[in-house]
Amino acid sequence: MTRSNPRTRRLRLQAAVVLAVAVAAGQQAFAQQAHAPLSVWQGSAANTDEAIALHNQGYAYARLGYYLPAIQAYDAALALAPNWASLYANRAMAYRQIGEPEKALGDVRRSIEIDPAMGRKWQEWMTELGFYAGTIDGVVGPQTNEALARWAGLPATAAQPAASR
User: Fold this and answer.
1) What is the reported pTM?
2) 31 vs 93: CA distance, rounded Å
3) pLDDT at 3 over 80
4) Is 28 left (phi over 0), alpha (psi -120 to 50) or beta?
5) What values do phi and psi take at 140, rounded to 5?
6) Closest CA to 97 of 69, 130, 75, 127
7) What is the distance between the terminal CA atoms of the chain, rounded to a whole angstrom?
8) Distance between CA atoms of 149 and 146, rounded to whole angstroms?
9) Rounded CA gap, 151 and 107, in Å?
């Protein structure tokens, strides 16, 4: 096991404190606040300790409803791990909460572009939240795009990639 640098340890501690405050405050799950969270500890071997710590910090801030600091943490994590699909998904959820639907939908698209399996996850989340009633098959077609646009707060046509409009 390698030792992490002081910055990474500090970020982990900050994330743990923010998450502990969220738990102590009795915050409801994201799904009950029109969110569908990804695990705080999710990541791949390609992600650095610092990127994981920043992801966890962003997640903790979002759980508390502090979406701008969450977005800042996700931005910093993406600078270190630009191909981490769940970071884009979590940032999309934060963008939605601050009224940035275009950015939210852009991050949804990017998460699916990086990891096509995210298409199925988004279908599952949209079903849980009442935006999607189609087949959960991972195929991101017109019905999924319309559900994602409605979730983001945009007209259904906004979810269609430019090439298919």
Assistant:
1) 0.74
2) 11
3) no
4) beta
5) -90, 90
6) 69
7) 50
8) 5
9) 13
